[in-house]
Design a protein that fits this description.
The protein is mainly beta. It is built from two helices and 24 strands. The strands form five sheets. Strands 1, 13, 14, 17, 18, 19, 20, 21 and 22 form a nine-stranded antiparallel beta sheet that branches.
């Protein structure tokens, strides 16, 4: 599940190390699905290795459309699929065919190249209190693995940790002495947190973090953050307070060591140079099965647009 990515601009290395920044997500439409894209955002490509976060909203909350995303390629990233409602069949060029349901994790690593498709198998009304069907995320691979082999992981069960009255499901990484078994190639954290009133979330001081409220407006320390917006939390903190006024709210908390590398993103590709992206685009256009391979899917193959710099040459 993915959509085209435009370059959001350059990083700002001079930003303060203690302040929390809040950025509004951008809205786009893919078929009958509305997308709130919270990362990348202006002057900010990554939070740790996280480089892409889309929240999926149906146009009909009571009867959401099935996910239908035909075979398409990736390089240099891992896709992280997290559903809140319904189910989908993942198919990829490794020969994988895996059903995913809410509470389960699909983690697909592209390396030099992989192709996949997502087909909705079952839809249901969205989770009460939110119009979000799921969250699609990418992790940028570090230089030592991004041209390596591809792989796929499915975790049918994920650990949970109690944080006072609140609860966190651990997609990736560890917190409170509890760890997910998901394997990644860079120090990373991914949580789905149910916040009841308030919680002081323990942090690693060497990680930068992002908080994305799903269904309720939250206070991230003293900053007000709306659903579909992003709070950027710099390194150097031991804890972070998340709070909702009355009842409970849900948020994605994403973090990791700063990637330490400038990345290039276009369409479904994460690389370091335009030349690398151009080569991947040409290989997908030309049907290079040695790089991307066929996908066992009945959905129509998605053709890549022409990179703007290639169109100008």
């Amino acid at each position: 599940m993915s959509g085209p990515v435009e370059d959001p601009g350059t990083e700002n290395p001079a930003r303060g190390i203690s302040s929390i920044e809040v950025r509004e997500g951008r809205t786009a439409e893919i078929g009958r699905m509305k997308i709130s894209r919270v990362l990348p955002t202006k002057r900010r490509r990554t939070i740790g290795p996280w480089c892409f976060v889309d929240m999926m909203h149906p146009d009909d909350v009571a009867e959401p459309p099935p996910l239908e995303i035909g075979p398409h390629p990736h390089i240099g990233l891992s896709t992280v699929t997290w559903l809140l409602t319904g189910s989908a069949l993942h198919s990829d060029s490794l020969g994988t065919e895996q059903l995913i349901r809410p509470g389960q994790l699909n983690l697909m690593t592209a390396g030099r190249g992989i192709a996949h498709a997502e087909l909705g198998v079952e839809t249901s009304a969205v989770v009460e209190g939110t119009e979000t069907m799921g969250v699609q995320m990418w992790l940028a691979q570090p230089n030592h693995t991004r041209n390596g082999v591809n792989s796929f992981q499915h975790l049918a069960e994920l650990p949970e940790v109690d944080l006072g009255d609140s609860t966190a499901t651990i997609l990736i990484g560890d917190i409170g002495g509890v760890a997910s078994s998901a394997l990644t190639d860079h120090p990373t954290l991914g949580l789905d947190v149910i916040v009841r009133d308030a919680v002081d979330l323990p942090l690693r001081r060497d990680f930068e973090h992002g908080v994305v409220p799903i269904d309720r407006t939250m206070l991230v320390d003293d900053e007000i953050v709306e659903p579909g917006s992003l709070a950027i939390v710099p390194p150097g903190r031991d804890t972070l307070r998340l709070a909702v006024r009355g009842g409970e709210g849900r948020a994605m908390v994403l973090g990791g060591e700063p990637l330490g590398e400038r990345i290039q993103m276009w369409w479904n590709f994460v690389a370091r140079t335009r030349d690398e992206i151009t080569e991947a685009w040409q290989d997908w256009r030309d049907g290079n099965d040695d790089r991307f391979g066929p996908v066992p899917s009945t959905l129509e193959r998605i053709e890549a647009p022409v990179p703007p710099w290639a169109a100008r040459s």
